[in-house]
Each structure stands twice: as structure tokens, then as C-alpha cells.
Amino acid sequence: MAVTFSNIVDRVKQQLLGYTKDQASISYLVEPMTATSTQFHADEETINNLSRGLVEIGDELILVKKYDRTSGIATVFGGNSGTGRGADGTVAVAHGIDEFIINDPRFPRQRIKEAINDTIDALYPDLWVFGEYEFPYLSARYEYPIPADADDVYKVVVNTIGPSGVWFPAQSWRFNPMASTTAGQVKPSPTPTGKSIQIYDRIVPGRNVRVSYTKSPNTLVNNDDDFEPTTGFPERYIDMIVYGACWRLLPAYEAARLQQASIEATERAPLVPTSAASQASQFFLALYQKRLTEERTRLQRLYESYQTFNG
């Protein structure tokens, strides 16, 4: 079963809030709203769960000015300008019927998504993704462009002549990560990507050369993005990424402790000691680092230097 961006967000949120979560104050839309709507219609029976201030619908944060308990209509700050839409760096988008409205979310989905992608980005170069590029060998050419996302070359193999179709290792080649992009005698420019492979072996012209290279992972964008084909990472990395996202998000709880603006917060303060969130963050960091060490060791054992194999 494919694991999507939305699934990973839900896993992170459940880790942060616990499996026995506090009951969130929520309502839901009974009419669709556009990306420019300055009002929205919530369920009349549950609109009392909302309050003036910040609410979340989907990935969007909205500042609510007021709401009518009888009609279920909530008005956004800014009047016709709708400046209360897309608050705190989120994007104002259309929302459909039955989407949940969450009052004052502890961990907004947009912040969770950012923490997930920050963790994916930070895994490289400890963990990498493989890419491949193939091209025909030309007798009068030594340098060939390879894709711009190539950060290092792992191996170069050449297709043999005959029915066996064996790919044998190239013995003499050099990766040039800073190749010239200016046009020379060969036009257009021989290295338009700024990355090239220089091959010095004697290879039969017309034979295909295959370059296997390492590159950084892609981040996730849409809720339905499938983790493995989008990032290039295997699904077994997901728990590690969840731990990393939790480690990045939990310190925000410490800042919240400094704002004892409600009776509930003041009463809970003695029960949740200072630095509790930081300690929980360090716990998730330890889990993340342990998994990172495991996967780094696994990757290095599975894909030892190709020269080891070649020798």
C-alpha cells in the first residue's frame, strides 16, 4: 500500500499528540468556500467549538473575526480584503463540504509538512538516491554531459558486442562536476548541464555507456504524493523521518509555556515541568539518529565502493 504525504503528516501528528489525544475543538464546513471567500459556513451544532482567532481548514490557517451561533456563518478578518485568509505563511485555497475546521491547532499541518521536508533534505548526503543516464559512445568524443542532478558518479559500465549483452566496467573515467557550459568546437555546448563524464577507455563506437550516479532526494509537495517514487527513498525510511519531524517540532511547546494566557494553561504548568518538551524533543532526536546510523550502515554495506567490486 502506497504511503502518501498526508499519511506521514498524520503519523507525525499522532506521535506529537499521543495515541490518546486530547479531544480537539472542531467543526466542519456545510458549504464549500473559494480561495477568496471572506466568510465560511460551519455546522450550526458544532460552531460553538470555534472561537475568535486562528482556525485550520485543510493546510490553511485562517483568522476568524466573529461567528454567528444561529446561522453558523464565520467572518474572516480583513473584511472584503480577506487578509485573514492564508495566515502565518499558509496559502488561501478553496475548501469543500465536510472539511474539518480545527480551532487553534497545536501543530498546524503546514508546519508539520515543512518539518517533514526539512528532515528529508537533511538526510542527504548521509543517505542518497541513485539515478542512471545512458548515451552512445562516439569515437571522436571524450566528454559527455550527464544530468544536472548528479552529485557524484558511482559507476560507469559499457554494453558489449554480441548476444550476451553483458555490461562491463569502464576502467578509465573521470567525473567533472564543474564542466564548462560555454560552446566550443562541438555545438551546442558539450556540457550544457555543467556536469560531465570523461571517458578514456577504448570503446567500440555506437556501444551504449551507462552512468550510475548519486543525487539528493526530492521533497513532497501534494497530499497524495507517494513517498517512495517521489523522494526516491525506500518506505522503511518513513519512521526515521517521522522521528526527525517530531524532534524539529516539539521545541515549540517550550515557547508556548511562556504564554500562560489562560486558566487552563496556568493550572497545567506545575504538572508539566519546565523543559519537558525539550526532553521529549531529545528523545525523538535519539530515535532519529539511531535509525539514521542503521540506514547509513546498511546503504554503505549494500553499495560498497564500485572499485571494490571492480577489483
List the helices and strands and how they pair.
Blueprint: H1 5-17, E1 26-28, E2 39-41, E3 53-57, E4 60-67, E5 73-76, E6 100-103, H2 109-122, E7 129-136, E8 143-145, E9 152-159, E10 167-169, E11 173-176, E12 196-199, E13 208-215, H3 227-231, H4 238-249, H5 252-257, H6 263-268, H7 276-302, H8 306-310
Antiparallel strand pairs: 1-6, 2-5, 3-4, 3-6, 4-5, 7-13, 8-12, 9-10, 9-13, 11-12
Helix pairs in contact: 1-2, 1-4, 2-4, 4-7
Would you write up a description of this structure?
The strands form 3 sheets. The chain has a 6-stranded antiparallel beta sheet with strand order 1-6-3-4-5-2, with no helix packed on it. It has 8 helices and 13 strands. The chain has 3 domains: 1-21 and 106-127 and 220-311; 25-104, Elongation Factor Tu (Ef-tu), domain 3, CATH 2.40.30; 129-215. By secondary structure, the chain is of the alpha+beta class. It is 28% helix and 21% strand.
The largest sheet has its strands arranged as 1-6-3-4-5-2
Query: What is the subunit arrangement here?
Result: single chain
Secondary structural class: alpha+beta
Distance between the termini: 40 Å
The unreliable regions are none
Number of strands: 13
- Note the beta-strand portion: 15-25%
Largest sheet: 6 strands, antiparallel
Shape: elongated
Order of helices and strands: HEEEEEEHEEEEEEEHHHHHH
Question: Main traits of this protein?
Answer:
311 residues; alpha+beta; Elongation Factor Tu (Ef-tu), domain 3; 3 domains; six-stranded antiparallel beta sheet; 28% helix
Provide a compact summary of the structure.
This protein is α+β, with helices and mostly antiparallel strands.
